[in-house]
Amino acid sequence: MILSCTFVGRLTSNNVVTRRVGNRIIANPKAVSDKNKIGMLAMEAKIKSGWIIPESCAVTIVCWNTRKDISNCEKCAGDGMNGIVYRDDSDIIELNIKKCRDLGPERYDITVEPREPIPKPKPLRITSPKKAKGTIA
Q1: DSSP letters along 10-34, please?
Q2: In angstroms, how far is CA 117 from the centroid of its own chain?
Q3: pTM score > 0.85 for this model?
Q4: How many CA atoms lie within 13 A of 38 on its CB side?
Q5: pLDDT tens digit sequence for 14-53
Q6: DSSP secondary-structure letter at 3?
Q7: What distance in Å separates the CA atoms of residue 63 and residue 74, rounded to the nearest whole number?
Q8: Which residues contact 113 (CB under 8 A, 6 or more apart)?
Q9: Is 71 in contact with 79 (CB distance < 8 Å)?
Q10: What pLDDT is attached to residue 70?
Q11: How far apart are CA 100 and CA 68, in angstroms?
């Protein structure tokens, strides 16, 4: 099962998501609006496809006709899908981002696929060294 959605328009760069004014941190209303729009698109795609939140997933983002830094676009798109497509963006184990150009508008094609989770390593068992007989401690 694959979940796909397309955000048409310009995403707010991650550099201008929040700013500090005195003791307060103020969120950029445009950035919050973009994240909410991506969340709504993801929710619609989730309902249409019958998506079940996986333990881990792979995300592909194709940025069409943008001049922005692609890592900032990924941050905005990824945060918008938190809690909707996956529990948290730490569940993403594979991320592919690509910039492309054509004659169409600026847009972002987002695809999410479930993946097998990475097995957790067994915890190391640390034992204290035994004292050798006849040594002075």
Answers
A1: PPPPGGGSEEEETTEEEE-HHHHHH
A2: 16
A3: no
A4: 28
A5: 565 566 778 887 777 888 888 899 999 999 999 999 999 9
A6: E
A7: 9
A8: 1, 2, 3, 57, 58, 60
A9: no
A10: 82
A11: 12
Q: Quick check: helix, strand or coil at residue 56?
A: strand
Residue from 68, 76, 78, 70 nearest 111 by CA: 78
- Beta-strand relationship, 56-64 and 92-100: parallel
What the block records as the tokens of 133 is 């007989």
DSSP 69-121: -HHHHHHHHHHHTBTTTBS-GGGEEEEEEEEE--SS-SEEEEEEEEEPPPPPP
- Which residue do the tokens 């079940």 mark? 52
Q: Please state, in angstroms and rounded to a whole number, the distance separating the CA atoms of residues 131 and 91.
A: 44
Q: 65: alpha, beta or left, given left = phi > 0 and alpha = psi -120 to 50?
A: left
d(CA 39, CA 80): 5
Q: Which residue bears the tokens 């979940």?
A: 3
Q: Are strands 107-115 and 3-8 parallel, antiparallel or unpaired?
A: antiparallel
From the centroid of its chain, how far is CA 19? 21
